[in-house]
Amino acid sequence: MEVVLHEASTVPMQKSLSLHSVKYGDSAVTNTNETETFLETSNGVSKGTTFNMLPSDSPVDIRFDNITFTATEGGIFQKKTKKQILHGVNGRFPAGQLIAIMGPSGAGKSTLLNILSGYSIQGVSGKVDVNGKPRKLKAFRKLSCYITQDDRLQPLLTVAENMHIAADLKLSSSVSQKQKDVIIDEILATLGLSHTKNTRAQGLSGGQKKRLSIALELVNNPLVMFLDEPTTGLDSSSCKQCLELLKVLARQGRTIVCTIHQPSAKLFEIFDQVYVLARGQCLYQGGTANMVNFFVDTGFPCPEYHNPADYVIELASEEYGRDRVEAMIQRCENGKSLKYFEYPEKILKTDFTGSARVDDDSGDLQATSKLNQLRVLMRRGFIKLKRDQTLTYMRIGVNIITALMLGTLYLNAGTDGSKVIDNYNLLFSILMHHTFTPMMLTILTFPTELSILIKEHFNRWYSLKMYYLSVTLIDLPLSIFCCFLFTSIVYYMTGQPLDGMRFTMFFVSSMLVVFVAESFGLVVGAYFSVVNGTFLGPILTVPMMMFAGFGVTLKDLPIYLYWGSYVSYLRFGLEGVVGAIYGLNRQTLDCPEDQYCHYKYPKKFLEDIAVKPDQFSNDVIALVLFWFILRIGALVVLKYKLHSMR
Ligand SMILES: Nc1ncnc2c1ncn2[C@@H]1O[C@H](COP(=O)(O)OP(=O)(O)OP(=O)(O)O)[C@@H](O)[C@H]1O
To answer: How many alpha carbons fall within 13 Å on the CB side of residue 606?
Structure first.
């Protein structure tokens, strides 16, 4: 059967093809045994390709009434002010249509898109109906997806790997690997990405990245797609390809809503329906072709040879005065009027029987089990770790170089009774290394992950807890390896006692300090930007150093500041490593004949610095508690952050 894309004015909904369907995930893969030619275009990505995924459920019709959005402005210590962005807008986005939300910069396009997709929930009032019933957000999220303006892809993974990870997370476990491969191949072929399968996402062109972003969300066959400025950054040919592809997807019965800035006349024609915003109010809603009639009806016709898309933006920007804008808002009744829709009787359905999924808010948001999410995220994490060789080698290299430097600087300080203070300084330097290296690495790298997390989490790829657990686990092997390497080199070169027990205590204390510092970095990185985090991380670590007993010993700490030693994880780390080296009844230290050895007796040294040598188990418990609390803290901060952004 040949399905040819119709003109924008016709309304071909989902075709009834002779199909056999394979149920997968939320939807169905529907295989036709005939070729569909979607687009009559020479440069269209889909010409002659077979695209067999049709939505399995009834199409989704979105209607919104009296939508108002009020933003709260003002920082933590500033007076809060309210700013109304959307002013009671109304509208209807029927299924099977490619819809553009247009308007000048700041008109409220992204705000409206965010509200309709369910991404923005705070400060919103009004009503959104899905197939005639009030939208159930959980159910709606299960059948929709949001594609952000910036391409939030995993740059180190190839196109095929990105797709397989998406399929493994977004398709039910009952779908076999073979079926997933078929789905992936089909999507990539349709989007013209088959030849880039083995290219890493970072090596794709802007248009290919955009198509990959769409491909990833198509994996579970959503009925509704929201795209924020899908053509930004693309050349005119790529823009056309991208919009034509979206039109194909719309024609199959999906509701596709995009925000777009100022399309050329050619691009504008591709859309079925336009929704124009001017300062948070609806200026026009209806068929693309009818917009010119609308201008005539309001008494402000579009000048001859003028692109209607340009004209409407000029109008909305008030280039021809505010009164024209007011007249148009009134004429389209702020989006209530359906007069300018093409074939309103056909597309503006009122009978929505048989669309069960729009009501189904039962079960988890994610398609697969928690265990599967963790497994897939760990797999992705290890691939990234392996590919990000610069960072991985840098981490190993920094540990080796720092260990060699400290080893050379404090050569044999561990056995020499005249160098006990030097050795103490070394122990503190080691803890500084274990604090700053992992903390700064996390503060610098985590915020870049955050944008991908926000997109994937909103699109229901995985739960936040599983993502967080994977982040925690993935880094463990490399952190342990680096710490072991560092400890072994420093310990041996500086002549610390070669005793298995002492070495183990030393390594365990060091390792726990690394884990705590990493978790602290995660709390900071989850909340603050890279710039603020880079400033705050070290600043907040300085009091920890002060209260650890370095510089001012714990004995000399003023009583009113003693509490500080309990909140400083470095204090427990220092106690652990000092106990490992000078505790366990260490014998008298060697003292060179020509030297004065004030701390020849380790016991005296421990007394002077007020460190109890028998506290190792308490130190471990305290550090594990810090680790645990900070990890939970970072999860809470992340959850808050994801929630507050909505
Ligand atoms: N959370 C918020 N707090 C304060 N102001 C906001 C908030 N969200 C949106 N705004 C303001 O609302 C207006 C509309 O923003 P929006 O991002 O929706 O515009 P837009 O039409 O998508 O613009 P552009 O095309 O430039 O992306 C802007 O002036 C923006 O600063």
So the answer is: 23
